[in-house]
Design a protein that fits this description.
The structure holds 2 protein chains of 2 kinds. Chain A is an all-alpha fold. Chain A folds into 2 domains: 172 residues, no CATH class; 284 residues, no CATH class. In chain A, 73% of the residues lie in helices and 0% in strands. In chain A, α2 crosses α6, α8 runs antiparallel to α16 and α8 packs across α18. The longest helix of chain A has 34 residues. Chain B has 2 domains: 98 residues, no CATH class; 259 residues, no CATH class. Chain B has 13 helices and 14 strands. In chain B, the strands form 4 sheets. In chain B, strands 6-5-14-12-13-11-9-10 form an 8-stranded mixed beta sheet, with helices on both faces. In chain B, α8 crosses α11. Chain B is elongated. Classes of the chains: A mainly alpha, B alpha/beta.
C-alpha cells in the first residue's frame, strides 16, 4: 500500500487512527503492529513472512547477544545476527546480479531466480542490524517485549522507504510516549506537506521523465531538462516520503530523525551527503566507516574506507553496475574534496560552488536513473551533444515551457526560502493570528488537491521502493 | 511553537476530511459508468483467498477506490484547473484548449505506423480491390489547424502524407486538407461536424468520378443539444457544449442499414442514442465492424466500399446520393483477412479508404 493512494488516505489511515486513539495505552503498540502487518500484507502478501522472520530473528538475537555479553559467545551471537539479517537481503536483492555476472564472466547459463524484491527489505534489514549491533555494543538494552520490538521493525510509517530509524532513537517512545495535540497537528502538517511534495511535484516531474525516455527526438536541451527534472523529482519523491513518515510517526507519538536538510543548497558534494538521506549516511558512518578505522588509520586506509563505504552505498541502492558506479563516483569526489578540492572550493565564489555541486549531482542522478550502464552512458553523452545530438528541438522547448512553473516552484521549494518567509511572517503578531486560519486552510487545500491528483491519476509507486 | 488554536483547527479539519470522505465513499452507491470519461468504472473486487494472497484483491481495491471516489469529476476538474491556470502547464493528460476548442495532442509522428497503414491499404487493394475504382483520403485531425500556430507540438503532416504517397502507388489520393478548416470540427469532440461536410462530400464524389453531388440534395437540419464530445470529459474543464446536427431527407430516412454481424436492419440516424455514453453514436449506431446502407431511391446501381474509421459514419450518409449502396468496413473491429466471407466485391464499382491522421499515426489497431 502506498501513502499516496486513495485507499491509504481514506480507508486505512482513518480506521487505524480511530482504533489507535480509542484503545487503552497498553494496546497501542499491538494495534500499530497489527496495522503495520496489514499494511505490508496489502502490498506484499507473499513476503509478509520474510518481514516477520526479520522481526523474530532480530528479537531473538537481541536477547542472545544480551545474554552472552562479555562472554565467549558474544561475537558469535553478533555474527549470527548479521548473517540472519543480511542473508535474506543478499538472497532477494543480489542473487540475480551475482548469477548474471557469473554467467557473463564464465559463459555459463545458470538460470535467474524468478523472485521479486520484498518491499522495504533494505530499510528494515538495516534497522534490525543497527539494533543487534547496538545491543552488542551496549548502547541499548535488549528489548524483551516482542510486540514492542516487532512494532519498531515493522512500523508502517517508515517501514518501506525509511528513514532508517535506529532503535536507540525510539527506544523510550516504544514503551511510553506522549500523545499531544501539538504533536498530532505537527504530524498532520508534515504528512500533508510530504504528500504534496510526492503527488503534486515528484509525480508531475516523473511524467516529464517518462516523456523524455519515450521521445524519439532527443536534443541537448531535452537531456538537460530530463537531468534537472529527475534530480528534483527524486528529491521531492524521497524527501516527500520521509516527510510523510516523520509526520505519521508524530501523529502516533514517535519522533523520527530528519532525513533531508535542504541538500541542494550545499556547496560541495561532501556537504550534499551530509544533507541527503541522512539516516543512511549516518548508518554507514557508524556501522561501517568508523569500525573500519574511519580517518584515524592513515591516509591510505582512510581512502580505502571511503571507497568501501561508497561501494556499499551504491550497491545498497540497487543490484546493478550503474548503482555501484554511482557510489564509486561519489567516493572519487569525496576523496578529492577531502584531499584538496574543498580548499580550492573555498577560494571560489559561493555561486560557483553551488554550480559545481549541482552539476556533479545532476550527472550522478543520470547515472543513477539509467536502465543499465549503456543507457546511463548514452544519456550522459547526450547531455554534451554526443554523438551529433542537436542542441534544441520543438519538443524540448514545448516541455520546458510546460514544466517551467513547476520546476521553478520545486527549485525554490528545495531551499529554506519558503520556510524562512513563513517564519518571518509568523513573527509578526497580526499575521501570526491570521495563520491560525490560513495555515490549516492551506493544508486542507493541499490535501484536496492531492486527492484530485490521485483521483485523476494512476498508480505511482515511490522511486525508493525498489531499494 | 505552534499555537494551540491552530493545532485544534488542523486536527479537526484533517479528521473531518479523511473520515468524511471515507464515510461518503462507503455510503455512496457505486456507479456503473463514467459519463464524462465514457468508460465502465471498476467495481468492488470479489473476495477470494487466492486473490487475497496473490495481491490482486488489494490492487483491484485500489482501482475501485479511485474509480468510485465521490465527487470524482469535480476533483478531476480541480486538478485540471490547477495544472492549466496555476502551474501553467500547456496540457493536462495530453488535452489542451485553444479559444474554447478542446483538443488532444497527437505527437510524435509514428512513421512505422504510417508505413503499416500504407501497407495495409496496399494489401487490401491487392487482395480485393484491383478491379474497382479505388481512392484513399486522409482526414486531418484538429491539431493540423490548431497545434503549431498555438505553440503545441504538431506532427509533420506533409511528411505523413508524403509517406503514404511514396508507399501507395496504385491507389489514387483525394486531398481533403484544403477542403477543411477548424470550424468544420466539433469544439468538444474529435470528429468533424456533418453539417459542414457538404463540400467535402462533393469533393469525394467528384474525385470518385461520381456525377451526383451532396450539394444538390435537399437536407433538413436536425439539432441535438447539448453535445458534450469525448474531449469534454477528458479535459475535465468547463466548456460550452456543441450542437450535434445531422442532415436528413426522405432518401436517408427510407434507407436501411444492414448490420452484417447481427443480421439486423437499422436506420442511418438513431437520435435516441444521443443520450447514451457516446452521443456520436447517433450516426450509424456508432462503431460497427460491417454495415451496408441500402438506398432504395438510387437512380444508379453503383456501390461503394468505404473502409473507414469513426469519421466515416457521418460522411457516409452524404455520399449516399451517388450510390445504391455503401458498405462500411471498420478494420479496427473486423480483420481484413475475412472480408471476402462477407462482401461480394464484384457488386461494387468504387472503393474509398477514409482515415483520419490519428488512425494512421496509431494504425496497429487496424486488423
Amino acid at each position: 500500500m502506498l501513502f499516496s493512494s486513495i485507499s491509504f488516505l481514506y480507508c486505512f489511515l482513518p480506521v487505524v487512527l480511530l482504533i489507535y486513539l480509542v484503545v487503552p495505552r497498553r494496546l497501542k503498540n499491538f494495534i500499530l503492529l497489527l496495522s503495520s502487518l496489514f499494511f505490508y500484507f496489502c502490498g506484499e502478501p507473499g513476503y509478509l513472512i520474510v518481514m516477520v522472520a526479520a522481526c523474530i530473528s532480530g528479537y531473538l538475537h537481541g536477547l542472545w547477544i544480551d545474554k552472552e555479553k562479555g562472554g565467549r559467545l558474544a561475537k558469535i551471537s553478533l555474527i549470527s545476527s548479521v548473517f540472519f539479517s543480511i542473508g535474506p537481503l543478499l538472497f532477494f536483492k543480489y542473487t540475480n546480479f551475482a548469477v548474471r555476472n557469473f554467467n557473463l564472466l564464465l559463459g555459463t547459463d545458470i538460470g535467474l531466480l524468478n523472485i521479486a524484491l520484498p518491499i522495504g527489505i533494505s530499510f528494515y534489514t538495516f534497522q534490525v542490524l543497527s539494533y543487534t549491533i547496538d545491543v552488542y555494543r551496549g548502547d541499548v538494552k535488549a528489548q524483551r517485549n516482542f510486540i514492542d520490538f516487532a512494532t519498531y521493525v515493522s512500523l508502517f510509517p517508515q517501514l518501506i522507504a525509511g528513514p532508517i530509524v535506529r532503535y536507540a532513537v525510539v527506544e523510550s517512545e516504544l514503551s511510553s510516549r506522549i500523545h499531544s495535540s501539538a504533536d498530532m497537528a505537527a504530524g498532520i502538517s508534515r504528512f500533508i506537506i510530504g504528500l504534496s511534495k510526492k503527488v503534486i511535484i515528484a509525480n508531475t516531474l516523473g511524467e516529464l521523465g517518462d516523456i523524455f525516455l519515450k521521445s524519439g527526438s532527443k536534443t541537448v536541451l531535452f537531456y538537460w531538462l530530463y537531468a534537472l527534472s529527475f534530480m528534483i523529482q527524486i528529491y521531492y519523491d524521497f524527501s516527500g516520503y520521509s516527510d510523510m513518515a516523520i509526520g505519521l510517526g508524530r501523529i502516533f507519538g514517535f519522533h523520527f530523525p530528519e532525513n533531508f536538510d535542504y541538500p541542494f543548497i550545499s556547496r560541495s558534494l561532501t556537504e550534499f551527503w551530509r544533507r541527503w538521506h541522512i539516516s543512511l549516511g549516518t548508518w554507514f558512518r557508524d556501522y561501517v566507516y568508523i569500525p573500519m578505522g574511519g580517518n584515524r588509520a592513515g591516509k591510505a586506509k582512510w581512502l580505502r574506507n571511503i571507497f568501501v563505504v561508497w561501494f556499499l552505498t551504491g550497491f545498497w541502492h540497487g543490484a546493478e553496475w550503474n548503482f555501484i558506479l554511482w557510489g564509486l563516483y561519489f567516493a572519487v569526489f569525496l576523496c578529492l574534496e577531502k584531499l584538496f578540492l574543498l580548499k580550492v572550493l573555498e577560494k571560489i565564489p559561493v555561486f560557483a560552488r553551488h554550480i559545481y555541486m549541482l552539476f556533479f549531482i545532476m550527472v550522478s542522478f543520470v547515472l543513477f536513473n539509467g536502465d543499465g550502464l549503456a543507457e546511463c552512458i548514452s544519456n550522459i553523452r547526450g547531455m554534451f551533444g554526443f554523438p551529433g545530438v542537436p542542441l534544441v528541438g520543438a519538443e524540448a522547448i514545448y516541455y520546458l515551457k510546460s514544466y517551467s512553473v513547476i520546476l521553478l516552484v520545486a527549485a525554490v521549494g528545495a531551499t529554506p526560502l519558503p520556510r524562512m518567509a513563513v517564519d518571518r511572517l509568523k513573527s509578526l503578531k497580526k499575521i501570526n493570528r491570521l495563520a491560525n486560519i490560513l495555515e490549516p486552510a492551506v493544508q486542507v487545500s493541499l490535501l484536496l488537491l492531492v486527492t484530485a491528483y490521485l483521483v485523476d491519476g494512476s498508480f505511482n509507486p515511490f522511486l525508493y521502493f525498489r531499494f | 511553537m505552534r499555537n494551540n488554536t491552530r493545532n485544534i483547527i488542523t486536527i479537526i479539519l484533517f479528521i473531518t476530511i479523511i473520515f468524511g470522505f471515507m464515510i461518503g465513499n462507503f455510503a455512496a452507491p457505486d456507479k456503473e459508468v463514467s459519463a464524462s470519461e465514457r468508460r465502465t468504472l471498476a467495481k468492488l473486487p470479489e473476495f477470494s483467498m487466492q486473490k487475497l494472497f496473490s495481491g490482486d484483491f488489494f490492487s483491484d481495491f485500489d482501482k475501485y477506490s479511485l474509480d468510485q471516489f465521490i465527487f470524482r469529476d469535480d476533483f478531476r476538474g480541480f486538478k485540471a484547473f490547477v495544472k492549466y491556470n496555476i502551474l501553467r502547464q500547456k496540457d493536462n493528460n495530453g488535452i489542451y484548449m485553444v479559444n474554447g476548442i478542446i483538443n488532444k495532442l497527437e505527437y510524435p509522428l509514428n512513421e512505422k505506423s504510417v508505413l503499416n497503414a500504407a501497407n495495409k491499404l496496399n494489401d487490401i487493394y491487392n487482395r480485393y480491390l484491383r478491379d474497382i475504382n479505388t481512392k484513399y483520403a486522409v482526414i486531418p485531425d484538429k491539431n493540423y489547424f490548431l497545434a503549431s500556430e498555438n505553440g503545441y507540438l504538431s506532427i509533420d503532416y506533409s511528411r505523413m502524407t508524403g509517406l503514404m504517397d511514396e508507399n501507395i502507388s496504385e491507389i489514387g489520393y483525394i486531398d481533403l486538407f484544403k477542403s477543411l478548416s477548424i470550424d468544420d470540427y466539433y469544439r468538444t469532440d474529435i470528429h468533424w461536424d456533418q453539417d459542414r461536410l457538404i463540400g467535402v462530400a462533393d469533393k469525394i464524389l467528384e474525385e470518385m468520378g461520381n456525377a451526383a453531388r451532396a450539394s444538390d440534395a435537399k437536407f433538413t437540419r436536425r439539432e441535438l443539444y447539448p453535445f458534450y464530445g469525448s474531449y469534454y470529459g477528458q479535459a475535465a474543464v468547463k466548456a460550452n457544449p456543441d450542437t450535434l446536427v445531422y442532415l436528413t431527407n426522405s432518401t436517408l430516412e427510407s434507407a436501411m442499414v444492414f448490420d452484417h454481424y447481427s443480421g439486423t436492419y437499422g436506420k442511418i440516424y438513431e437520435p435516441e442514442r444521443f443520450t447514451g455514453i457516446d452521443p456520436y453514436d447517433v450516426f450509424l449506431s456508432g462503431p460497427q465492424p460491417l454495415l451496408t446502407i441500402e438506398n432504395p431511391d438510387s437512380p444508379t446501381n453503383r456501390g461503394l466500399i468505404l473502409i473507414r474509421d469513426s469519421f466515416g459514419s457521418s460522411i457516409a450518409p452524404l455520399l449516399l446520393c451517388g450510390y445504391s449502396k455503401i458498405t462500411l468496413v471498420d478494420l479496427r473491429m473486423i480483420s481484413a483477412e475475412i472480408l471476402g466471407s462477407y462482401i461480394d466485391f464484384t457488386e461494387y464499382q468504387d472503393a474509398l479508404f477514409l482515415y483520419s491522421t490519428s488512425t494512421l499515426n496509431n494504425s496497429y489497431m487496424l486488423k
